[in-house]
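User: Let's play a game. I give you a shape written as tokens, and you guess the letters that built it. Ready? Here's round one.
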């Protein structure tokens, strides 16, 4: 089965790995905007604007949290977070590694193939983070706590193709 794009410029690999040349030419970083990345550190300050002179409005304390870059300058990235916020963070605070956050309040069933009737491989805790392997046909394959499995893509934050905030 061929993988279907998660967004115009991102399939779930490292940051912007399949971004078309025309899109790369129009961005500061050379990667697509919007695009998904994850937080690189345990503590990341989200600021009101693109610079250290702007006040911090949020402190993210979740290494690996998926965020979506929706704007950028040479040193700063405007990101959407799973909580509905939009802040500016320094480019050194993000990693190209793709992760997802399980949505909902109940554990998420992971299956061994991307089919609703497939055998279960385990449960992913609600609001847990997982490494994203790939998505195809509305399903995403994730790796979490030694488990590998598939779940419908709409059960995750971190894979929507459209910008998640402004």
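Assistant: Ready! My guess for every position:
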């Amino acid at each position: 089965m061929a993988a279907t794009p998660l967004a115009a410029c991102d399939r779930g690999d490292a940051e912007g790995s399949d971004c078309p040349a025309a899109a790369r030419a129009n961005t500061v970083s050379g990667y697509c905007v919007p695009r998904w990345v994850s937080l690189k550190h345990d503590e990341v300050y989200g600021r009101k604007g693109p610079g250290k002179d702007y006040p911090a409005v949020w402190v993210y304390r979740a290494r690996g949290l998926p965020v979506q870059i929706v704007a950028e300058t040479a040193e700063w990235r405007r990101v959407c977070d799973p909580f509905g916020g939009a802040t500016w963070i320094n480019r050194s605070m993000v990693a190209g590694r793709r992760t997802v956050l399980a949505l909902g309040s109940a554990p998420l069933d992971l299956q061994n193939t991307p089919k609703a009737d497939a055998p279960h491989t385990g449960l992913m805790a609600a609001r847990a983070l997982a490494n994203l392997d790939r998505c195809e046909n509305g399903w995403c394959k994730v790796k979490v706590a030694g488990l590998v499995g598939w779940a419908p893509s709409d059960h995750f934050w971190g894979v929507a193709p459209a910008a998640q905030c402004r």
